[in-house]
Amino acid sequence: FPNTQQAKASLLTAQQPVSDARELLRDSLPINNKPIRKIQKEIFTKITEAVRVPNVKMSEVQSAVSESQKVLAKEKPAIIKDVVGDTAKKDASATLAQIEVKLNEFQDIIDKKDKQEIPIKQQEILSLVERIENDMIPTFPFKVPKEYASGPLLMGRATVEMKVTCKSSSNTNGGIMKIVLDGYNAPVTAGNFMDLIKRKFYDGMPVQRADGFVVQSGDPGNKQTGFIDPETKELRTVPLEIMVKGDKTPIYDATLDDIGRYKEVPNLPFNAFGTLAMARAEFEPNSASSQFFFLLKESELTPSGTNVLDGRYGVFGYITEGKELLKEIKQGDTIDYVKVISGSENCMNCINENAAAAPAVPAEAGSLA
After folding, report:
1. Which of 9, 24, 146, 268 is the most buried (most CB within 10 A)?
2. DSSP-assigned letter for residue 230
3. Are 328 and 171 within 8 A, CB to CB?
4. pTM here?
């Protein structure tokens, strides 16, 4: 890792990338509809920048709303055309009408200079935009390599819930975090995690690392490094899997450094507090099994845009609700359960949820780097 002075210098010079988990997930959807992307960027990027300054730049908020209204006025047919299925097209038409109403409400907020309401209305519109974008994906966008296709695969997205009990926090007894797993960009990695959730592998497991840099768990405590498949009696591992912006399929088995693409940006970067990735042995890219970590983005070791993790570790999701709990979690706290809330139908080759829970066979702790 770079030293603290290098990190601080990088932080001052680096361009601030998107750090909002939901926006990162929207950006990484495999769609290419320019009108809906235009609305998304106007409402997220321009308004987020406008409210970041002490005195909200109402002129920028106005510009974002006006530009979005212009797109809707001219490009509704082009948006609906890319939505898949007749029912979804009808839903999209109704959703666009809702966006129009929300934009008009936004205009009232601007006229009243109501700064408190701006981020609320912004999120309402972005949720509607996201709904339409999700309905623009016709089929899974690529074929998983043959050598990994027989294992658990998440062919889309899923939302899971993780409940943690905090034993030594003075602020909370624990709580629940919601996490979106992204199979569009990491189907093998996310599928492996989903399968372990369905096996109740993580239920009751302690947090094994919480050092201000990451919160890590998934080490069941045996002599190997993770999940022992009860059918094969062997350690199950997943490859390093990284989708680079602009690519149509993920890169497998190698870091971006290894293949000389270290300057390129993954679709799922380590930008957000609560980024979820797999832990692995430092020099073995395909050694991840069951151990995972959440990045605590405030660490000076990983300033935005210059972090040392992108392209080296496989991100497969983000915390979208309850991420504040990460600050309270300590080593020895307990993951009470992880369960699937939605998207279970997208998990191919996963164990039936009614099957017996996998035994937590002890494993050696893996490392981040």
Report:
1. 268
2. T
3. yes
4. 0.90
